[in-house]
TrEMBL record:
<dbReference type="InterPro" id="IPR025250">
    <property type="entry name" value="DUF4199"/>
</dbReference>
<feature type="transmembrane region" description="Helical">
    <location>
        <begin position="12"/>
        <end position="32"/>
    </location>
</feature>
<feature type="transmembrane region" description="Helical">
    <location>
        <begin position="150"/>
        <end position="173"/>
    </location>
</feature>
<protein>
    <recommendedName>
        <fullName>DUF4199 domain-containing protein</fullName>
    </recommendedName>
</protein>
<feature type="transmembrane region" description="Helical">
    <location>
        <begin position="38"/>
        <end position="59"/>
    </location>
</feature>
<keyword id="KW-1133">Transmembrane helix</keyword>
<keyword id="KW-0472">Membrane</keyword>
<feature type="transmembrane region" description="Helical">
    <location>
        <begin position="71"/>
        <end position="89"/>
    </location>
</feature>
<dbReference type="Pfam" id="PF13858">
    <property type="entry name" value="DUF4199"/>
</dbReference>
<keyword id="KW-0812">Transmembrane</keyword>
Length: 182
């Protein structure tokens, strides 16, 4: 009996690779000063393309190592683990960046968001309410700092979202065996 390809090995390989590319893109985004608004949105779309491309490449590699076959369950298992690894890398980098490289990241993001809202013609009352709510949120964030709960919640979110994305992609990429006893 032949061994099946290791989903853990492939998830580590592709999750690590895509996670590192994500970190690079995020670093470029912040270096260019795009925290929110249209620039942030464009980088978000780029990140989405990178993530889905990495997932497709990981699933294709698994399928080719598995004699051209892959079930939805195998794909979802691989994708969920891959997204967990990407989430671990991304969340660790985000908290490190915010704590040590740019502690004013939240303030910069809020200011860009406010500027964008103002440019869109949002009424002054709504902008004042935004300022009050975001000021409270920023103060709470500075007081609490990076918490373990937020770290875990972020990784869980990556895993959940990754499972959904993988489920959708795997429906197009699966290939069933004609003879289930092979």
């Amino acid at each position: 009996m032949e061994e099946k390809p290791s989903t853990a090995r492939l998830a580590l390989k592709w999750g690590g690779l895509v996670g590192l590319v994500e970190i690079l893109v995020t670093t470029i985004r912040y270096a260019l000063g795009y925290y929110s608004g249209m620039g942030g949105t464009l980088f978000g779309v780029l990140n989405g393309i990178i993530i889905v491309t990495g997932l497709v490449l990981a699933l294709r590699e698994f399928r080719s190592l598995n004699k051209g076959y892959m079930s939805v369950g195998e794909a979802v298992g691989l994708g969920s683990l891959m997204f967990t690894i990407m989430g671990l890398l991304d969340t660790t980098f985000a908290q490190f960046y915010q704590a040590f490289i740019d502690p004013n990241l939240i303030a910069k993001t809020l200011q860009q968001t406010r500027d964008f809202m103002e440019a869109q013609g949002v009424p002054d009352e709504a902008l004042d309410k935004f300022d009050d709510q975001m000021g409270e949120l920023e103060a709470q964030q500075r007081k609490k700092g990076a918490s373990g709960g937020a770290f875990l919640l972020s990784i869980l979110w990556w895993t959940f979202a990754g499972t959904i994305v993988t489920l959708i992609v795997s429906l197009f990429m699966r290939r069933r065996k004609d003879n289930p006893f092979d």
